[in-house]
């Protein structure tokens, strides 16, 4: 009896080995499906962060500048807000909802990281529009609601107080957070490539200083039964904010839900093993008499 090489079996064994590797790679990717929407029974509050993205937020009295300092501090604060729904509004001369209310803190952080002073082309600081946009972001929520406004408070439009009255009517508290120093700081001037080129000056050639306006922030907070804070380099202000909003009455987040997926990597591990075992059991030779 002679044994001869069977090329068809050899090709089949190679195909099985490749298939085994393919299924193993799929398994390592941890595929998931059968998405299920699960209503959450969490207790919490609804919070909209309104962040000033005007050019004055480039001032460096808080390193590396006001905006980046506020973003870094806010990211740390978000880690403590699990269980609440959080949204994001960006504003300068106008405002828009950067991220709607969600209990996914990682999503909020992703949107937060993309905020810069080029996000809104309209110059200026319209706090009134920011407040009204934040009010709309809450929708018809019946939960405890709070707006945390991070700004240097240089309101140029004059509509902030009327907007605060609107927030009070909707039972929304404003926690106004002053970003920057009372002494003031210069505002970097940017060239067409976005690089710093000196400091901003007025039409008469005088250097422009940007100062935080704590008086306005106090008024907004008082009208809505909130609080006003100043942020300094030691970041203690953000811990005070967390303590303040933690005292708000928590309610069941009726619209809070999460997506649950089932792991399916086991299927591909089984297929990979089946291919490997079959490949090992197949002989590459054929018997001939």
Automatic annotation (TrEMBL):
Keywords of this entry: Cell membrane, Membrane, Transmembrane, Transmembrane helix
Transmembrane region(s): 265-282
PANTHER family: LEUCINE ZIPPER PROTEIN 4 (PTHR22550:SF5), SPORE GERMINATION PROTEIN (PTHR22550)
Pfam families, sorted: VWA
PROSITE patterns on file: VWFA (PS50234)
Superkingdom: Bacteria
Domain VWFA: 46-245
Name used for this protein in its record: VWFA domain-containing protein
Organism: candidate division WOR-1 bacterium RIFCSPLOWO2_12_FULL_45_9
């Amino acid at each position: 009896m002679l044994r001869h090489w069977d090329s068809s079996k050899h090709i089949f064994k190679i195909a099985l080995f490749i298939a085994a590797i393919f299924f193993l790679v799929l398994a390592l990717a941890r595929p998931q499906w059968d998405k299920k929407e699960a209503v959450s029974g969490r207790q919490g509050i609804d919070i909209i962060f309104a962040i000033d993205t005007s050019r004055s937020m480039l001032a460096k009295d808080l390193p590396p500048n006001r905006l980046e300092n506020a973003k870094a501090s806010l990211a740390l604060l978000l880690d403590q807000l699990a269980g609440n729904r959080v949204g994001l509004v960006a504003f300068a001369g106008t405002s828009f909802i950067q991220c709607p209310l969600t209990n996914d803190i990682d999503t909020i952080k992703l949107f937060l990281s993309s905020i810069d002073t080029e996000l809104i082309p309209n110059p200026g600081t319209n706090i009134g529009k920011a407040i009204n946009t934040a009010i709309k972001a809450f929708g018809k929520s019946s939960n405890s609601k709070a707006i945390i406004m991070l700004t240097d408070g240089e309101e140029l439009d004059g509509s902030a107080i009327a907007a605060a009255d609107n927030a009070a009517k909707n039972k929304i508290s404003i926690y106004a957070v002053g970003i920057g120093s009372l002494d003031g700081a210069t505002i970097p001037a940017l060239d067409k490539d976005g690089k710093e080129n000196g400091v901003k000056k007025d039409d008469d050639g005088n250097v422009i200083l940007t100062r935080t306006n704590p008086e306005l922030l106090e008024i907004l907070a008082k009208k809505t039964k909130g609080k006003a804070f100043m942020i300094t380099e030691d970041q203690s202000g953000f811990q005070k904010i967390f303590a303040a909003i933690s005292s708000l009455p928590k309610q069941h987040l009726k619209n809070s839900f999460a997506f649950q997926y089932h792991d399916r990597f086991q299927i591909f591990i089984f297929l990979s093993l089946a291919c490997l075992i079959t490949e090992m059991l197949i002989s590459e030779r054929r018997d001939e008499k």
